[in-house]
Amino acid sequence: GREVLAPGALVLRGFARAQAESLVLEIGEICARAPFRHMLTPGGQHMSAAMTNCGPLGWVSDRRGYRYEAADPDSGKPWPPMPDTFLRLAADAAAEAGFSGFIPDACLVNRYEPGTRMSLHQDRDERDLTAPIVSVSLGLPAIFLFGGLHRSDRSERVALVHGDVVVWGGLSRLRFHGILPVKEGSHALLGRQRINLTFRKAA
Ligand code: MD5
Ligand code: FE
Question: The whole model's pTM is what?
Answer without folding.
Answer: 0.98
